[in-house]
Design brief:
mainly beta; seven-stranded mixed sheet; 32 strands; 41% strand
């Protein structure tokens, strides 16, 4: 179901006709009300330079950015309120924007060739949707994703609940991963075949909201809602909070039963999000590190919680109030069909490709596959679906990782309930749009196929996606 068949492409003339009033908008991305019931903004995609706070402050890095900032402007909208976003492309190549985790119409999903034509250099495209779910989401390109995301195109999209009692401070961290030279410039070689067959492009520099060694200034006595977004191409993170006990209150934007993470570490694969509640009970005037120690022997401080000298008595109730649930259809497991999706390929210890012999549908340069078939790139017209699902019906997807590598698997247009991992039930009523599979894991997820269209399902280690670990699920 390519864009040319299911939803006509929008030309420059269409954009200008539909958005005539948008010409009066400033180029900044402040939200402005075009009407009482709609939020309108503009995003400008262009090359720029940015100081990432690298080893020498004398250097700035050549990046690609939304509105000239790393990360892009934080977009905050209200649940159930329509939003209109005019994207203008000033890159030298086509781009799109994928609104990651938002359950929106297929024509607004931002997959080139599948849901829309790429936004050509100098052209514009208007995205319009009404976010049904409150929570933490993000936006990024889905065209030439390795380079465009890897060069900086990412931003936080926050859909606010009507109210969040018991929280004094609400902060989002967009955590990005860069591979930089000693002069602070991005290393080329995106799409390296050897890296693609293993863990993907993991960088040597990690920033929070566009800066190294971020200091988040806090006050003792407050309660902090920290929205964590892993915007890296491939880096998996396990964050622990020195002197604090994080409580996870939402996963991928979807509220869950509040709970402490296993071993006190918040595990985030690429594209995953977690809303963490922190009781700020540290000593006034002291700094506490937030440490990523996922990779053995390579731990480092991502950021610092820097306490002011004062104590702020809490104004809100002491009792933790769980977030209100979003309007997700609960799948009836008693009548759900189960479909198995096997993740295959990649480099093994002996230098062999796992499971690649005799696969059909292999594309040139493919290293990975789902059920023996590879779909490479960022999405294109004519991609056949691996499954055709009936609208309104419940389904269980059994994801079997037959590889030696980790895979954060992302489904567009839907959220799913994580049921079990290797036969053991997953607690705390966790919903997500991206689930992280360890090597040899089997994970069952369930959802109701209630959003019609051809939806991407792929690994969000971007090297794995473009090298074949991608398919389509058609909701008929």
């Amino acid at each position: 179901m390519a864009y040319s068949k299911s939803s006509p492409s929008i030309t420059r003339r269409d954009v200008l006709r539909r958005g005539a009033g948008l010409a009066l908008l400033a180029s900044s991305s402040r939200l402005a009300e075009a009407a009482p019931d709609i939020r309108t903004l503009k995003l400008l995609v262009r090359p720029t330079t940015w100081d990432l706070g690298t080893r020498s402050r004398a250097f700035t890095t050549d990046v690609w950015a939304y509105d000239g900032t790393i990360p892009g402007p934080q977009i905050r909208v209200r649940q159930g309120v329509p939003v209109r976003i005019l994207v203008e492309n000033r890159l030298a190549e086509g781009t799109t924007v994928h609104w990651h985790g938002i359950r929106l119409p297929i024509s607004m999903d931002g997959v080139p060739g599948l849901t829309q034509a790429p936004i050509a250099p100098g052209e514009t495209f208007t995205y319009e949707f009404t976010p049904p779910d409150a929570g933490t989401f993000w936006y990024h390109p889905h065209a030439n994703t390795l380079q465009q995301l890897g060069r900086g195109l990412a931003g936080a999209l926050i859909v606010e609940e009507p109210e969040t009692p018991g929280i004094e401070r609400d902060v989002a961290w967009v955590i990005s991963d860069w591979r930089l030279t000693s002069e602070g410039q991005l290393v080329g070689g995106f799409g390296n075949a050897m890296e693609a067959a293993m863990s993907g492009r993991v960088g040597n520099t990690v920033t929070v909201n566009g800066a190294l060694h971020t200091k988040e200034r806090v006050q003792a006595g407050e309660r902090l809602r920290l929205r964590l977004i892993n915007a890296a191409l491939a880096r998996i993170m396990a964050l622990r909070f020195e002197g604090h006990r994080p409580i996870i209150i939402a996963v991928d934007g979807q509220p869950c039963e509040p709970h402490e993470p296993e071993n006190g570490r918040v595990l985030l694969g690429p594209a995953m999000r977690a809303d963490v509640l922190l009781e700020l009970n540290g000593e006034p005037g002291r700094a506490y590190e937030v440490i990523d120690d996922f990779y053995q022997g390579l731990s480092y401080a991502v950021a610092v919680l820097s306490y002011g000298d004062e104590y702020t008595p809490r104004k809100s109730p002491n009792a933790l109030v769980p977030l209100p649930r979003n309007p997700l259809a609960e799948p009836d497991l008693g009548r759900a069909e189960t479909h198995v999706l096997k993740l295959q390929g990649g480099m093994m210890g002996g230098g062999n490709m796992a499971g690649m012999g005799g696969m059909h549908g292999m594309s040139h340069g493919a290293t990975w596959a789902i059920n023996g078939t590879s779909m490479t790139g960022d999405g294109h017209e004519g991609m056949p679906p691996s499954l055709t699902l009936q609208r309104g019906q419940p389904y269980v997807l059994r994801l079997q990782n037959e590889t030696a590598w980790w895979h954060p698997m992302h489904l567009h247009g839907h959220s799913f309930r994580i049921l079990s991992r290797n036969g053991a039930a997953v607690p705390y009523r966790q919903w997500a749009d991206t689930v992280l599979l360890e090597p040899r894991d089997t994970v069952d997820v369930a959802f109701v196929a209630d959003n019609p269209g051809d939806w991407m399902f792929h690994c969000h280690v971007t090297d794995h996606q473009v090298a074949g670990m991608m398919t389509l699920l058609r909701v008929a």
